[in-house]
Write a structure and sequence with these properties.
The protein is mainly beta. The protein has 4 helices and 12 strands; from the N terminus they run E-H-H-E-H-E-E-E-E-E-E-E-H-E-E-E.
Amino acid sequence: MRTPFLIPAFMSAVLAAGCGPGENTVSPSSLSPAAVSAQPSQHANGAVAESPADAFFESLSSLCGRSFAGTLAVFNETDIESFGGAAVMHVRECSKDQIRIPFHVGENRSRTWVITRVGDGLRLKHDHRHQDGTSDALTMYGGDTVADVTGTPQRQEFPADAQSKAMFEAGGLAVSVDNVWAIEVDPGRQFAYELKRPNRHFRVEFDLASEVAAPPPPWGSQ
């Protein structure tokens, strides 16, 4: 049975750097579909087919303006004792090249997932702010999709990039340099955010069939 996703402000480090008080996961999750190339293919008539990254971005864009409540699907035993506020994601800002998704946990409005088109793929960054709108010391970490390794129209994976690894090392979070984040969109059914690394798996899922009221703006928004 999935657990309603409740988590306090101090757990921002868990979602931020993917580190938490314990490292042994307790809820198994099925693996993603076989990865396919994110490079566009060409039809017999010469037309360029839509790439998996483009199809994924369009699916995510179709949710713009909508909000959904989350449940914790995969977590550590010690996470269970740390819940303290309802989780809501809001696909708040969309352009042809970028989508911003604030992720609120209780009264904590510090986190925004930022998905941007880059070349033939996508980039995920985590924008973390303080209540006064200033940037957190640990912010804008993430990575880019990797062609021929990850990427389907339903799931995109983002291994930590060099900038993020350097930030983790400098902040004493070397365990997080192997982080791989993923976002899944199954239109009409589910949105999921996931973090994986050796001995760590964290996943929160949102039911796209049950829309909720939009939350307040994230900290630092205009």
